[in-house]
TrEMBL record:
Protein name in UniProt: protein-serine/threonine phosphatase
Pfam family, one: PP2C
Species: Musa troglodytarum
Top-level taxon in the UniProt lineage: Eukaryota
E.C. code: 3.1.3.16
Catalysed reaction equations from the record: O-phospho-L-seryl-[protein] + H2O = L-seryl-[protein] + phosphate; O-phospho-L-threonyl-[protein] + H2O = L-threonyl-[protein] + phosphate
Gene3D superfamilies the UniProt entry points to: PPM-type phosphatase domain (3.60.40.10)
UniProt lineage: Eukaryota, Viridiplantae, Streptophyta, Embryophyta, Tracheophyta
UniProt KW Hydrolase keyword: yes
Annotated keywords: Hydrolase, Protein phosphatase
Length: 155
């Protein structure tokens, strides 16, 4: 990619972080208080973990840790604008190794290439699906060791 093309991409696709919440890690002060108030403990092995097992304090599943783990998500509401082109829903397996700016550039390029290959507008869902798959492959190639889930929604 030339310098001019690189600048075009930086200016064309701007990521907007939907929230600025700190991940729900067990050593976050409010999560630590919540877990301990329920009788749980945070133990450090390679990182802080609920009962020395789970490295997040909010999760689906993990039945044996249910007394201390919450499946209630932290939510924010953000208004959309006409400039919004897509939404990325992804797990930390992606965000640990790829910045939101890079993810937006990759998706923008995928959608542009698929559109230029003669895909009609009606296949936006398959273009978004392909873009999500590219992000998963990129995260794996960058050495992500966490679960990687990605959904791209074309707006």
């Amino acid at each position: 990619m030339s310098v001019d093309e690189d600048l075009k991409w930086k200016n064309q696709f701007k990521s907007i972080l939907m929230n600025e919440l700190v991940p729900t890690q067990p050593d976050r002060p409010d999560e630590l208080r919540r877990v301990e108030a329920l009788g749980g403990r945070i133990l450090c092995w390679d990182c802080p973990r609920v009962l020395g097992v789970l490295s997040t304090s909010r999760s689906f599943g993990d039945y044996l840790l249910k007394p201390y783990i919450s499946s209630d998500p932290e939510l924010t509401v953000t208004g959309r604008t006409e400039k919004d082109e897509f939404l990325i829903l992804a797990s930390d397996g992606l965000w640990d190794v790829i910045s939101s700016e890079m993810a937006c550039r990759v998706i923008g390029k995928c959608l542009e290439v698929l559109a230029s290959d003669g895909h009609p507008c009606g296949v936006a869902n398959s273009a978004a699906k392909e873009a999500a798959a590219v992000l998963v492959r990129l995260a794996i190639s960058r050495g992500s060791v966490d679960n990687i889930s990605v959904v791209v929604v074309k707006l």
